[in-house]
Amino acid sequence: MKLIPSSAQDLATVSALIAEHRDQPGALLPLLHAVQDALGHVPDDVVPAIARALGLSRAEVHGVITYYHFFRREAPGRQVVQVCRAEACQACGGEELLALAERVLGCERHSTRADGAVTLEPVYCLGLCASSPAVQIGEKLHARVTPARLQSLLAHVADTAEVAP
């Protein structure tokens, strides 16, 4: 994993978020969510400041970031495609959809394509178990996704992220 130092503006943003959340009970998760909402990820170089502010070890903060699939340690691509791999979605073809997404996007799971256009993330539960399999593209959820429908959705991703289908 390549470590790109955060900009002064990003560090100032994180400092303001720490000040906003530091005294909140159970502040770590809300603070990490706020940092990711603001920066798109939780950079490794802000972990020591978060740990100090909350009286935690860097290992504790790092452990939470790496435990929850939602948190990213690197900036995502311009478009993020998430394919559910929870049991209901797997039973209805989720693994096939993930493999198809890899082929169509030219991007392996858990990675961002070299051109920065798209990040492909397998996730565990998008909350649409009764309507599986599910995919999320950006902020939009899609239920009962078939391979043909996924190809159509990914063609739209191609248009908006300048991805070659």
From TrEMBL:
InterPro entries: NuoE-like, NuoE_N, Thioredoxin-like_sf. Pfam families: 2Fe-2S_thioredx. Its cofactor is [2Fe-2S] cluster. Gene3D superfamilies: Glutaredoxin, NADH-quinone oxidoreductase subunit E. This is Formate dehydrogenase subunit gamma. It comes from the Bacteria. Keywords: 2Fe-2S, Iron, Iron-sulfur, Metal-binding. Belongs to the complex I 24 kDa subunit family. Coiled coil: none annotated.
